[in-house]
Task: inverse folding
């Protein structure tokens, strides 16, 4: 009976011994550290997209540069609107002029590069910004004015783009924009070729 009693005592001793605790769950501290590490990593922020400068406005006169710099021409586009509409910055940059020029309110913004040397001008408007102000796409530069309009007696925004010493089409700043109103008088109507017509004849 000695051997069975010894075995019984061993079993009782094993049953009474404390069990090892299960592995502890991860605490919030490592998660916070990992989150902080992710937040500290550099994240690429996409540049803001250009915006249309006058809500609901359509182009009524297109860019028509002169053959030579000193000749007459139309160095911008005219966007039809109504007095009091907010005029918004097409792109981000710094205001380099805000005031009255030749009897009309003008705001000029040097755009952030690259490329450098782009300057956008808006007129006529009552400026709501000052020289040196930073603006983002969509920020209000002022309100459209009737005085000095290129479309008198209607009010329209003359919107110009200068790249260095040369004027460029400001519509090139936009990937797409509202429809452009073009004259159709005198434009021939396309006709379908007849059975005997061949291309190049």
Result:
């Amino acid at each position: 009976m000695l051997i069975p009693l010894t075995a019984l005592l061993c079993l009782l001793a094993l049953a009474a011994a404390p069990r090892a605790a299960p592995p502890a769950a991860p605490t919030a501290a490592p998660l916070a550290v990992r989150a902080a590490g992710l937040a500290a990593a550099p994240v690429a922020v996409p540049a803001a997209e250009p915006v249309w400068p006058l809500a609901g406005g359509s182009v009524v006169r297109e860019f028509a540069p002169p053959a030579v710099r000193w000749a007459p021409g139309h160095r911008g586009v005219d966007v039809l609107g109504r007095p009091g509409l907010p005029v918004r910055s097409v792109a981000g940059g710094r205001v380099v002029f805000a005031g009255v020029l030749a009897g009309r309110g003008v705001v000029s913004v040097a755009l952030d590069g690259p490329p450098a040397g782009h300057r956008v001008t808006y007129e006529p408007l009552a400026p709501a910004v000052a020289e040196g102000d930073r603006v983002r796409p969509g920020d209000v530069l002022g309100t459209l004015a009737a005085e000095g309009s290129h479309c008198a007696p209607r009010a329209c925004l003359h919107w110009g783009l200068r790249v260095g010493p040369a004027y460029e089409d400001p519509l090139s700043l936009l990937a797409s924009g509202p429809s452009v109103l073009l004259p159709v008088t005198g434009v021939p109507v396309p006709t379908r070729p007849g059975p005997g017509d061949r291309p190049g004849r």
User: Anything to note?
Assistant: Residues 4 and 71 are 120 Å apart (CA to CA). The first strand starts at residue 59 and ends at 61.
